[in-house]
Write a structure and sequence with these properties.
Elements lengths: L1 H12 L3 H18 L3 E5 L8 H11 L4 E4 L5 E2 L2 E2 L13 E5 L3 H14 L3 E4 L6 H12 L6 E4 H4 L19 H8 L1
Parallel strand pairs: 1-2, 1-5, 5-6, 6-7
Antiparallel strand pairs: 3-4
Helix pairs in contact: 3-7, 4-5
Length: about 180
C-alpha cells in the first residue's frame, strides 16, 4: 500500500508526469503496431468516403502489406476482402486497425484476443465502455500478448473534426501516425 500512496503523491506533485508517461506508452505501442510484418483493416469497404477505406488506402499507399476485412463487401481498392479475422494467414504476425461501430468492435477484439493477433488499434469512435472493459480484463488476466491502442485509454482525443487530419502528431489515428512516421 505505501507504494500506491507514493505513486499517487508523485503524480500529484509532478504536473505533466502523467501526460508524459501516457505519451511514451502511446509511442511504444505505436512502434509495436507499426513493427508488424502484415496488417489488416477491419471495416474497409468499397465506399471511398468511409474512414475504414481511407485507413486501408493510406496503408496501401505507404507500401504496407495490408488486407481489408469486411464480410459485407467483396473488395476494397481492388483487393478482395477477407470475411473474418480467422481468415488471416498469420494472426500472430498481423496488426489490425479496427474502424467499426463499438458493438461490432467488441466481437472483433474478442476474436483478435482468441487468435493472438499481434496488435489491435481501435480508431476513434470504435470503442465504448464494454470494449474497454473487455480489453482491461483481457490484458490483466491472460497470457495472450495482443497489444491494444485506443484513444480513450491513452487519454488522447482528436483535435480535429476531420476523420483523417494529419497535422496533429498526437491524434490517435493510424493515418496521422503513418503519414508522420514514413
Amino acid at each position: 500500500m505505501p507504494s500506491l500512496v507514493y505513486a499517487i503523491s508523485l503524480l500529484l506533485l509532478v504536473p505533466g508526469l502523467c501526460t508524459a508517461s501516457t505519451t511514451l506508452l502511446h509511442e511504444s505501442k505505436t512502434e509495436l503496431f507499426l513493427s508488424a510484418p502484415s496488417f489488416a483493416v477491419v471495416g474497409a469497404s468499397d465506399d471511398e468516403r468511409k474512414f475504414g477505406t481511407i485507413v486501408f488506402k493510406t496503408m496501401l499507399d505507404q507500401g504496407l502489406d495490408v488486407v481489408p476485412i469486411n464480410p459485407f463487401v467483396p473488395e476494397s481498392q481492388g483487393i478482395p476482402c477477407l470475411h473474418a479475422l480467422s481468415d488471416l494467414a498469420d494472426p500472430a504476425r498481423t496488426a489490425i486497425s479496427v474502424v467499426t461501430p463499438p458493438a461490432v468492435t467488441l466481437e472483433i477484439v474478442r476474436q483478435a484476443h482468441a487468435l493472438g493477433v499481434y496488435a489491435v488499434w481501435l480508431q476513434p469512435g470504435a470503442e465504448d465502455a464494454a470494449v474497454l472493459a473487455f480489453i482491461a480484463n483481457a490484458t490483466a488476466n491472460s497470457p495472450t500478448r495482443t497489444s491494444y491502442i485506443h484513444s480513450t485509454a491513452q487519454g488522447l482525443a482528436r483535435r480535429s473534426s476531420s476523420p483523417c487530419a494529419i497535422a496533429d502528431p498526437d491524434a490517435p489515428d493510424v493515418i496521422s501516425t503513418i503519414a508522420l512516421r514514413r
